[in-house]
Amino acid sequence: MKLSRIPVLLAIIALVLLIASGPGSRLGWWEFRTGFSMMRWAVYLGLGAGVLALLFLVIPRTRRGNAGTLAFGLILGLAASAMPLYGLSQAKSLPMIHDITTDTQRPPEFVAVLPLRANAANPAEYGGPEIAAKQAEAYPDIRTQHLDAAPTDAFNKVEQVARDMGWEIVAADATAGRLEATDTTFWYGFKDDIVIRVEPEAAGSRIDVRSVSRVGLSDVGKNAKRIRAFIKALGSQPAAG
Question: Which of 85, 182, 219, 235 is deepest in the core (most CB within 10 A)?
Fold first, then answer.
């Protein structure tokens, strides 16, 4: 094999590992930790391909007649490592929490979802003041919402938005003002559970949302992003006080 092809081969292997890591976990071909290991090896191989290609480019003997192939290996290797490294940097910039709620003092509680979380690594019970403090620092915008609608109408709108977002509705109890659902992440197929509480308040309804991952110490901001998307679709406003 020509030396100039080695970086390209390493970069291709890195891309295959990267592309397969998530869908393979989602389809149950391997555990998600194996998928994470594959992604880590994609970084190693991608960076290795890039370094090797760069080294061969600066050596006249290996560069001669192979510049295009080596440049391709360099770009491919960097591309394979860029996405996982970006995800890692995002994870390090966010708190190690996986339970996000608009009401940290009185978080909405799961009922119907509990049997589905029986084997989940993360508990359904809220973590208390320490988690609340970390959330307040990282996501100060996630607050209780107000909707200018009677509780019944507000609940109907909440349910419609949840369905429009593609969540799997587990329970919708309009009398109790509680909706529970599960959302599956696109790449790895992680199951995150959501509970929404609708309560009457002056001139409308009070809406609280909680989104919790079943596995993982950190959600890399996914639960906060989900709640923000829900609030935006709902068209609500932060509640006073």
Answer: 219
CB atoms near residue 22 (< 10 Å): 20
Q: How many angstroms separate the CA atoms of 124 and 126, rounded?
A: 6
How would DSSP label each residue in 56-110? HHHSHHHHTTTHHHHHHHHHHHHHHHHHHHHHHHHHHHS-S--EEES-SSS----
Q: Which residues contact 16 (CB under 8 A, 6 or more apart)?
A: none
Where does residue 177 rank: exposed (0-12), middle (13-18), buried (19+ CB within 10 A)? buried
**Domain residue spans in the chain?**
5-93, 99-238
What number of CA atoms fall less than 13 Å from residue 237's CA on the CB side?
7
- Token readout for 102 is 């608009």
How many residues are present in the chain? 241
Mean pLDDT per 10-residue section of the chain, whose length is 241 residues: 87 96 92 93 96 94 90 94 88 92 98 96 96 97 96 97 98 97 94 98 95 94 97 93 67
Q: Which structure tokens are listed for 4?
A: 């100039």
Q: Is 100 exposed, middle or buried (0-12, 13-18, 19+ CB in 10 A)?
A: buried
